[in-house]
Design a protein that fits this description.
D-Maltodextrin-Binding Protein, domain 2; 9 strands; alpha/beta; 12 helices; seven-stranded mixed sheet; 2 domains
Length: 343
């Protein structure tokens, strides 16, 4: 009798356990299904309100122009306003911090450039955020190389001339920039580091006085954007001796690259791209990448970029993330090697 009673108890326990497991399976299955539905539907309902694109500089700069060009075209794709929010201050850190600390829902984006993404983190102490950890790359929008300028009346007619004269008389040649850590300073530092040259850095408060001194031969060289230098190049006042991209510029087809001129692999460009807070869902990142890439492939947009000497590289979020990583490593090495500070 006891054995029959024991068997009945065990049978009841087995039925209870099976029922409990079945209920648990249903609960967990429903939870996972709900999560999966939420993730897969986030992009399908995005965006349902205006998107803000933060630019970390004042209106009128290259980043601001890129952001406005994108916003004008994205409106038709997303059927929502794309608002440009200019937040200048402290070398781009004010605007960048806003996006780094924002909610990752796809409604706050950053048009980030070289300085605020990979340079400030090694030049400025106590940023309060880490661009590489707190921001997620969406799409690389544009690359813009620089052009190496010398006086049209001076003896430096090529990178080889520059290297030869500098090596024969270390410390006698000079280069100008509009401040420590600016593109002109960094490009020159990369050239000096690669060729092992000793030159004097002379910072200026503006491009105007710098170009005046360069044309007069009071400084030896300057790395400039091509668009800013073209009038003086065309007018015979400045000489373009090299460009910093791996390929020659269409607008200056007779000017060799620095890499062609002896520094193999030299590649220095300013770039801009779209970033989102790090917790932004992957499907929203993919949606933004897809729509922005479509904008960049429009013929009129391509023509506009080419007129400003910018290339439009097609890329995925993963490729852009790898690009940012390698650029960060490059600038880390350069800042340490050239002892560059934010002063």
């Amino acid at each position: 009798m006891a054995d029959i009673k024991s068997l009945r108890i065990r049978a009841c326990q087995s039925l209870w356990l099976a029922a409990s497991l079945s209920v648990l399976h249903l609960v967990l299955g429903s939870a996972f299904a709900a999560d999966e539905h939420t993730l897969s539907s986030s992009a399908s309902t995005y965006p349902s309100k205006p998107i803000t694109m933060v630019v970390a500089y004042a209106p009128g700069g290259q980043g601001d122009l890129l952001a406005r060009l994108l916003s004008e075209r994205l409106v038709s794709a997303y059927k929502q306003p794309i608002l440009i929010d200019n937040r200048p201050g402290v070398a781009g850190t004010v605007g960048t911090r806003i996006v780094a600390k924002a909610k990752g829902d796809g409604y706050t984006l950053l048009l980030g450039q070289t300085g605020e993404i990979v340079l400030n983190r090694v030049l400025i102490k106590e940023l309060g955020y880490d661009p590489l950890k707190d921001l997620k790359p969406v799409v690389l929008v544009a690359n813009a190389p620089l052009v190496l300028l010398t006086s049209a009346q001076g003896p430096i007619k090529s990178v080889q001339d520059l290297i030869r004269i500098s090596q024969s008389s270390p410390g006698t040649l000079s280069f100008g920039s509009v401040g420590a850590g600016t593109p002109g300073h960094l490009a020159a530092a990369a050239l000096l580091d690669g060729a092992k040259l000793d030159m004097v850095h002379i910072p200026y408060k503006g491009v105007g006085p710098l170009l005046t001194d360069l044309m007069a031969g009071r400084i030896s060289m300057f790395f400039s954007s091509a668009s800013a230098a073209l009038p003086q190049i065309s007018g015979g006042k400045l000489r373009a001796i090299a460009v910093t991209s791996l390929k020659r510029m269409k607008i200056l087809p007779d000017v060799p690259t620095v890499a062609e001129s002896g520094l193999v692999g030299f590649n220095f460009s300013l770039w801009g791209g779209v970033f989102a807070p790090s917790d932004t869902p992957a499907d929203i990142i993919q949606s933004l990448n897809k729509e922005i890439t479509a904008v960049l492939e429009l013929p009129d947009v391509k023509s506009r970029f080419e007129a400003d000497n910018m290339s439009v590289p097609k890329n995925t979020p993963q490729e852009f993330q790898e690009f940012v990583r390698t650029e960060s490593e490059k600038y880390d090495r350069l800042v340490r090697s050239a002892h560059i500070t934010a002063d």
